[in-house]
Write a structure and sequence with these properties.
two-stranded antiparallel ribbon, globular, mainly alpha, about 130 residues
């Protein structure tokens, strides 16, 4: 850890090119399987493995057996991961407003209109 600054501490865990993409897929997108996380972004499997392991080690994600196929594992957000929902929604809104992001426009609009309701719906879907 570089310092005790809360922003620096958060960036030490979340502040690289791929970690927020992984969290977007798992927390906001409901993507649970390794093969689907980051698929549309072209993340290399070794990078994805490292990010998932780091997030799991930090208590943000949990790897569990897939209830539909016991041979596979899925990733679920922990309470610590779910606490990132407001941050991810704010980044989506900011990206839409200021960085030309157009994907997930329906989610952005829902969050704009009813932030608390959108957060609750995402939390419920993740559970």
């Amino acid at each position: 850890m570089r310092s005790s600054c809360p922003i620096t501490c958060a960036l030490d865990l979340l502040g690289d090119r791929w970690t927020l993409v992984v969290l977007r897929d798992v927390v906001l997108g409901g993507t649970r399987h390794f093969s689907a996380i980051g698929r549309n972004e072209g993340i290399a499997t070794n990078v994805l493995s490292e990010r998932l392991a780091r997030l799991e080690g930090a208590g943000v994600l949990l790897k569990v057996r897939d209830p539909d196929d016991g041979r596979r594992r899925i990733y679920r957000p922990t309470e610590r991961g779910l606490a990132l929902i407001p941050v991810l929604l704010e980044l989506a809104i900011w990206g839409s407003d200021h960085a030309g992001g157009t994907a997930k426009a329906d989610l952005v609009e829902l969050a704009r209109q009813d932030r608390a309701g959108t957060e609750a719906a995402i939390r419920d879907a993740a559970g």
